[in-house]
Amino acid sequence: MSSTPKPPTTPTTPIPHHHPIHQYPEALTTITTPTDVSTMTRLLHEFLDIVKSDKDFMFNNVRTTNSLVDHVFAKVCLLDLAQSRLHDTNLRIELIVHRSNCLEGVKKSLQSDDLENGDNFVRGFLKIDIKFKFDPGWVRVVWGRIMSR
Length: 149
Known about the structure:
Blueprint: H1 25-32, H2 37-111, H3 115-132, H4 138-147
């Protein structure tokens, strides 16, 4: 039995449904049933031009979005810095008020000859100064003398 060679066949694989060419059904019909190579080549070039323009459009959108994100991030950083400064300022104000209360307490204690209570106010005042470094070294010297008693 002799077998005669068969002419080569081109496999026809279906185009997947998620492929972008399904967005252009007229091109799909023409490409799946091409009449000649030049028509198929022309349609593929048209399709590639469409894909390229879509790619350029998407790239510009991504670039614009990236620029907006950078701008928003810079604003968020500025707001975060401002919030930190505001928090530090509020803490300083509270400490200044506490120090002022300590000074008033010392004055009242001296007027009423209540030295023990005055000593407590002085200790509170010096603790604030040392902890938050309001004043230079003289506070540490005075604090050392008070604590050594």
